[in-house]
Hints:
Helix content is 41%, strand content 15%. By secondary structure, the chain is α+β, with helices and mostly antiparallel strands. It has one domain: CATH 3.30.1330.60. The model is unreliable at 2-27 (pLDDT under 50).
Amino acid sequence: xxxxxxxIAACARNPNDNVGLTxxxxxxxxxxxxxxxxxxxxxxxxxxxxxxDSSSLTSEASATLDKQAAWLNQYxxxxxxxxxxxxxxxxxxYNIALGARRSSIVVNYLVSKGVNQQRITSQSFGKERPVAIxxxxxCWSQNRRAVTVVQ
Length: 151
């Protein structure tokens, strides 16, 4: 009899009861709930990449920043830090300046899309925080980036 009651109770559940958990209403596997830092990372994207010795945005970078701006304008309770990075080639001083230009271009782009500048800080790490280490273009291209960190 108890088994029968449990089965009926399970069938009577509303599928929308799972909103915010895994399944219905979720951003997706590992995507986090809407408005979460995890959703920003997985669904929007936290980084843009640059060409060698460049601080100009590519069309792909602009598309990612458009998604970031839309998310940040929707969820205004977050502050962000934009980190500028460079690959390991060049002097420390050159790469700090390049990382600063990269973070600045991202900040200016987000502000131009309506994100309040008071919510944004930026910092250049130059070549000090590589995500990939090797003496090859495959690593260098991953390190030429600006990362938007949701705080």
